[in-house]
Predict the 3D structure of the following.
Amino acid sequence: MRFIQFERGGVRQVGVEVRDGGDIVDLRAGDSAIPADMRSFIEGGQKNLLAAKSVIDRGGSIIPRDTVKVVAPIYNPDKVLCVGMNYKDHCEEQNAPVPVEPVIFNKFPSSIIGPTEDLVYPEETKKLDWEVELTIVIGKEAKRVQEKDAMNYVFGYTVAHDVSARDWQLEPGKNGGQWLIGKAMDGFCPLGPAIVMKEDINDPHNLGLRCKVNGVTKQDSNTNQLVHKTAAMVTFISRFMTLKPGDLVLTGTPPGVGVFRKPPEYLKKGDVVECEIDGIGKVVNKIV
């Protein structure tokens, strides 16, 4: 199933896409006991999944996509975590060693915007950059899980654009060398359009992913280049902090980002960025 959140008449609801970009099953129209927000839906576990399947199987409750606004599939996760330097080919473009352990940093829920929402260019940066990322959505509470069991704690996957202010992330003297400000400004996590359940993705570690700026392909790789894959990341992170239902883990980006181009390239107002992953969908955001 492809879970989304949508707004109609100013009210946000949880739905299921009939197909990528297709019409939407309004779950609460079919069963008012189903939660109206994605985090609560995921927290409800198997009960909510069975209720959603029942609504779909009964038919009806389908609304045309063009009558609603599709928004980010989740806005209120407990944590938005990110993994840096996690593509072999991205490490190669920087002449950097492949990390032995995952490099973890974070964004905040306030960074999340919808899959077609405008991205406001912060006046504090002059070096705004793009990164397409496969994103893990946690399905149930995970603490010190073993790698052989880790996939049991994954609900599904979505697409994120890990927007980066490279001056605040990488330039000497900026914020003491910490990445946080450069990665966690408002709007720096366009997300969506859907959360695809892990059971509906044949192999999350063999998906094409790409980023285009104004229609020009900047990144084009495959998740088979991931250094630390889903189970390993869930196991590593859960050693240090408890993962909660709805938590997001952005898994890293492939080569082709602006800062490492020769000469470097950065986003400007008016640019349109498309981040797409096969089998999941794409987020398309205009820089304003």
In short: Residues 190 and 210 are 15 Å apart (CA to CA). The helical segments are 27-30, 38-43, 46-58, 88-93, 166-170, 180-183, 230-240. The longest strand covers residues 189-197. The radius of gyration is 18 Å.
